[in-house]
Amino acid sequence: MRKDNLSVEDRLRTMRSVRSQDTKPEMLVRRSVFRLGYRYRLHRKDLPGKPDLVFVKRRKVIFVHGCFWHGHHCKAGMKQPKTNVDYWTAKLQRNRARDLLHYQQLSELGWRHLVLWECELKDTLSLEKKIVAFLEESANDGSV
What CATH class has 20-136? Predict the structure, then answer.
């Protein structure tokens, strides 16, 4: 048994239940984008990071990140694990480093990206304004 009283099998079952696609936050963003009239592709495996939403003609992608898993600076992102701290600290650091690498690779390929954080999704009006601003800006307007 582990310090947190979960067996290895219980921990594996828990981790398998953590989804990487079609999460509630992602579905909320997808519905908003569709309602705004934009069409997109999902999870293109040929692009770095397998972005959640891909706008091929605009050469733009959107990632919907969970605050804890990707290390946002909000309350949920700053939460520290209480058990197996060394493992989780290293894992979350690897996630952030991998995200930065994917953003850089996308940029080198001529793609622009927007990261939407789970905590930002509560304010629908602000979220939709952010999405429209990103999708409507021209390539030389600066980075988001």
Answer: alpha beta
